[in-house]
Specification:
This protein is mainly α and 167 residues long. It contains 5 helices and no strands. It has one domain (14-83, 93-166). Helix 3 packs across helix 4 (109-132).
Length: 167
């Protein structure tokens, strides 16, 4: 990776997408697994930028970093930012009446959504890392998929909704 640029496939490769598709998971669980893996990559980058372990990241640090990356994208173009998505169409703006660290951030609705998903993913990634006895950044895609499958199976056997979806 040169500078701040990202490879568009870095967040989820085709091989990883196929592995998730082949997992014994519901459609929603597969979707949430994709988000968790993509969020892990963002969190690892943010943690590296702050020089701290991913588990130590605070929501306010994530918000601040995404705000700074957004400003870079606005001022220098999408290729200068780490998160260099391009909008295909106009963003839908919606009322944001949540009371969290993200609400007052200088971010678009899309960026706020991404920020909230990234913060939420930590609630799943940290326990997965603890179960495997590794740092969050050291988690592999295979470990995440296996953990989600195990969790979903256990919850189904208990007649509960998958715990993974409760973040």
């Amino acid at each position: 990776m040169s500078g701040q640029q990202q490879d568009s496939m870095k967040f989820l490769t085709m091989e990883e997408a196929y592995a998730i598709d082949g997992a014994m998971l519901s459609t929603m669980e597969k979707f949430m697994t994709r988000i968790a893996i993509s969020s892990l990559r963002v969190l690892a980058h943010i943690a590296q930028a702050y020089g701290i372990p991913g588990e130590a990241l605070q929501p306010s640090q994530i918000v601040q970093w995404i705000e700074q990356d957004s400003q870079i994208r606005r001022e220098k173009g999408k290729d200068a930012a780490f998160l260099n998505w391009a909008k295909e169409e106009e963003e839908l703006d919606f009322a944001d009446d949540r009371n969290d660290e993200v609400t007052g951030a200088a971010l678009s609705s899309d960026e706020k959504f991404l920020t909230r998903m990234t913060i939420s993913a930590m609630q799943v990634l940290i326990p997965i890392a603890k179960d495997y006895g590794v740092s969050m950044e050291a988690l592999t895609v295979s470990q995440i998929i296996a953990w989600v499958e195990k969790d979903a199976k256990l919850k189904r056997e208990q007649g509960q909704e998958a715990g993974f979806l409760q973040w």
